[in-house]
Write a structure and sequence with these properties.
The protein is built from 19 helices and 24 strands. With about 625 residues, it is an alpha/beta fold.
Length: about 625
């Protein structure tokens, strides 16, 4: 029975509800963007407006009845006025329906005497009444900052003029109906430069004026604050409502994507602690278990560990190395070429599955080992015809030749397969499942049935299409599939090779889905634990854990170990050429230390079993 598709109906579990609650909480905390000294941007107004800035700042100097946009008189340019750079473009944006049409404020920072500058401002904005004809939700509010009139005079100035109040000490009899926000200098409270972590003392100082402003029901902004991703996040978490930045597009993109990149796993998993009794000893190796986390680079592994209460089964291992992942024809490999390198010890072109650059077949581990009396199997959370599992049985020049790849399975050297994608064997006019049965495969209806089978060849299709991800309801599949495979092979009393792939770590990297990266990483670690348990009981099993490549160019800029909360950042939607880790456990595992090509995994496996073959 293919039970995994049914699990899609159970995705609104308590775990998922908790995840969405946390996501909602993070979204609700997002601050707005204040484009500081916006007139210094390459494209004043339009860049900030397109970035969704909720506040846009222009310094003005009154000279000869004109409000010039400049910070000081020496930098005035005759054509750059408040009208030309801001009022006219804002009116055009509204009239033409450009952008999201979301209300914002134009913060006009007076650099000259308050009352005379205010008089000219009122004259300049008079023709633009269409911008604030809806006084309940005006397209733009004019907010005066810098040299302002006395607060007692605020009420003299008509709509849409409001004020940026710059004190949290002088708070008696405030004309709150005319105050749009509170702003203070960041430097009054902290010297933090936006790198590393702000001190608890400074954080508390910074929170005090924010709380005062909020106590009056008004938003808050720091000016001259650090302008970095770390600072934007910290200020937002403190409760700052408007982030002061010279990078409106970058800040807006970062803060909007932050809820999607912050993650706390609801599925903390118990780890297995190996005995290390046979680890690294120079004895015979009878069985090989190769576990491949697709796309599982060091950052993915780190994120999974931190999210899982700062521990993984994988990270208990002591023998480790790094592998280079380049393909024969490209610096950045795909899963087909990388899988083939691991399976055959040969560099091939991207997209090639078990096929050498000249088109000939690359002998894979199951083929080599069969002649020495080994059984072999593959397990994957991908389709059985996926690039990585296919590299261990097929020989095709392109990974998308699904029909041809499926047809090769029955003629392969495999004794066992478990994975998704049964339809790949039935959708091209020939029912390859019948061919599989004709070639001796017993197609089990469950993992339990597969584990108990006496057949010489077994297979289990866990789904008709692709398997769901962990976050879509799949639970313990890879662990259970690994255990079932090991139970099956153990009953045969023959040496064996088993490849286990955690496929969806890669999918999370491609899609920038932090939850997928972490939850699939935890799921993969559970399969590793199952392999290590077997190795400890057996005493002659070598376990290798690695990846085919890294996906997403992931970094971990920030996190909180106490909350098991991680922030991931992605530099690409593709694979990268970063080296990936290798971990080994059991007899001769010390030979996997060092830095080497991915093809050396094959060579080291062959070398490890030579003593058994002698």
């Amino acid at each position: 029975m293919n039970f995994f598709p049914l699990m899609r109906l159970k995705t609104c579990s308590f775990t998922c509800l908790l995840f969405f609650f946390l996501l909602f909480r993070l979204v609700a905390q997002q601050a707005k963007i204040h484009s500081h000294n916006d007139y210094l941007q390459n494209v004043p107004f339009w860049e900030a407006y397109a970035s969704g800035a909720a506040s846009i700042e222009a310094d003005v100097i009154l000279m000869n009845d004109t409000l010039f946009v400049a910070h000081e008189k020496e930098s005035i340019k005759k054509d750059q006025t408040l009208t030309s750079l801001y009022l006219d473009p804002i009116l055009k944006a509204k009239q033409l329906g450009i952008g999201k049409q979301e209300p914002f404020m134009l913060l006009v920072d007076f650099k000259t005497e308050a009352y005379a500058t205010m008089e000219q401002l009122l004259k300049d904005i008079a023709p633009y009444g269409a911008l604030w004809e809806d006084q309940t939700q005006p397209f733009v509010k004019i907010v005066v900052s810098g040299n302002r009139p006395a607060k007692e005079d605020y009420h003299k100035y008509p709509f849409p003029v409001f004020f940026d109040y710059q004190s949290t000490e002088d708070t008696l009899n405030l004309p709150l109906e005319k105050i749009e926000l509170f702003s203070l200098s960041f430097g009054r409270f902290s010297r933090w430069n936006g790198k590393g972590r702000i001190t608890d003392e400074d954080a508390q100082k910074l929170k005090e004026p924010i709380q005062i402003a909020h106590g009056f029901g008004k938003p808050f902004r720091f000016w001259a604050s650090p302008d970095s991703k770390t600072a934007w996040k910290a200020l937002s978490e403190m409760g700052v409502d408007f982030i002061n930045t010279d990078q409106p597009y970058a800040a807006d993109s970062y803060l909007k994507s932050l809820p999607e990149r912050l993650y706390k796993s609801p599925n903390v998993s118990e780890i297995y602690r190996p005995t290390f009794e046979t680890d690294g000893i120079p004895s015979k190796v009878k069985n090989i278990i190769l576990l491949i986390g697709d796309g599982n680079g060091l950052a993915q592994l780190s994120a999974t560990m931190y999210a899982n209460n700062n521990q993984l089964t994988i990270t208990q291992l002591k023998n480790m190395g790094l592998i280079k992942t380049q393909a024969a024809d490209d610096f950045t490999t795909d899963s087909a070429a990388a899988g083939t390198a691991l399976a055959s010890g040969q560099k091939v072109k991207n997209r090639s599955v078990g096929s050498l650059p000249d088109g000939s077949a690359a002998e894979n581990l199951p083929e080599y080992l069969k002649s020495h009396g080994f059984h072999s199997g593959i397990v994957s959370s991908d389709n059985v015809t996926g690039a990585t599992p296919a590299a261990f049985y097929a020989h095709q020049t392109d990974r998308d030749l699904i029909r041809e790849i499926a047809a090769e399975l029955s003629e392969s050297s495999l004794n066992l397969f478990i994975g998704g994608g049964k339809n790949d064997f039935m959708r091209f006019g020939t029912d390859e499942t019948k061919t599989l049965e004709a070639q001796g495969f017993f197609l089990a209806g469950s993992l339990e049935e597969l584990a108990a089978s006496n057949a010489s060849r077994v297979g289990y299709f866990a789904s008709n299409q692709g398997l769901p991800k962990v976050m879509q309801g799949r639970k313990h599949y890879l662990k259970n599939a690994t255990k079932a495979s090991l139970d099956y092979f153990q009953s045969k009393k023959q040496p064996f090779f088993l490849m286990v792939e955690g496929a969806y770590i890669d999918s999370g990297g491609h899609a920038h889905e932090v939850g997928t990266v972490i939850e699939e990483g935890i799921d993969f670690d559970q399969a590793v634990a199952e392999a290590l348990r077997f190795a400890d009981k057996d005493g002659q099993t070598l376990v290798i854990v690695t990846a085919d490549h890294e996906t997403g160019g992931i970094s971990l800029p920030q996190g909180n170990l106490g909350r098991q909360e991680l922030e991931l950042e992605f530099s690409t939607e593709d694979h990268t050429g970063i080296m990936v880790p290798v971990f080994a456990y059991g007899p001769q595992s010390d030979t996997f230390r060092g830095v080497y090509e991915n093809t050396a995994i094959y060579d080291k496996i062959i070398a490890a079993i030579q003593r058994y073959l002698e």
